[in-house]
Structure formats: C-alpha cells, structure tokens
Amino acid sequence: MIFVPLLHYFKCKNTYSGNEYGLRYRLTPGKRSVPDPKGGEGAVKEESILTVDYWPDPWTLEMTDPALRRQEIFPLTDEGRAAAASCLEDAFNADPERWKNCPDMMDCDPWTPPAPEPEEEAETRNA
User: Fold this and answer.
1) Is residue 1 part of a domain?
2) 52 to each of 37, 73, 109, 112, 127, how far by Cα in Å?
3) Helices (H) and strands (E) in the chain, counts
4) Is 103 left (phi over 0), alpha (psi -120 to 50) or beta?
C-alpha cells in the first residue's frame, strides 16, 4: 500500500515524495486558474489542486525522459487525496514487474534534453 499523507499536510503547502520499488512519485499542492461560471464571460477563479507526478527509477523527475513521466491532477480535498493515492496504487498494480525491475543508476545514463537545432542557435544569437 502506497502511503500518502493526510490532507492537512498538503494544505500546509508541503510536498511529499516517495517510492514503491522502482515507482518514484511526488505529490505537490498548488493552485490553478479555471473559468468561473458564476463570474460571467472571461471570469476566472483559483482552485486548490494536488499534482501527482510519477516515473521509473533510478533518476529524479527532472533527469528522467519526459516520455516515461506521468502527471495527474486532483482537487485538494479528502476525495482528491484518496484519488491520488488510488492513482499511484493503480499505476503500480498495472505493471508491478516493470517497477520491480527498473535499471540501476550504474546501468543507465540520466536523460538530457536534446541539443538545439543549428538554426535555432543562430536565431538566438541574432535576437
């Protein structure tokens, strides 16, 4: 069972990270702007959210190929917290052998962004 802290932990603006075998995950509270149906045309309001990122071992989120990363967003409520925990459980249970057999840090290199195209470099210099 994957542990996810109580809602109060996230309401205090704390981020939580952990792992289950090779399934690494991070839960981050935040806010996002959404259309406000009560405010008329063009009106927006902020809502509190809980963002769940998960990816395979061995690297940090930033050093893992974006194709291997997943992100889900839930409301920052008790139901959203429970759904986030369920999302992580489902991700692990969908392919437990994948998570139990991730490569070791010594067996692979971290992901690095691709080099910019030569014409992009020229545009940047001329700007």
Assistant:
1) no
2) 27, 6, 24, 22, 37
3) 4, 4
4) beta
pLDDT in tens, the chain (127 residues): 899 999 999 999 999 999 999 999 999 999 998 887 777 777 888 999 999 999 999 989 998 999 999 999 999 999 999 999 999 999 999 999 999 998 887 887 788 888 888 875 556 666 5
- Domain holding 35, by residue range, is 7-126
Number of domains in the chain: 1
2 part of a folded domain: no
Residue 70's identity, in one-letter code, is R
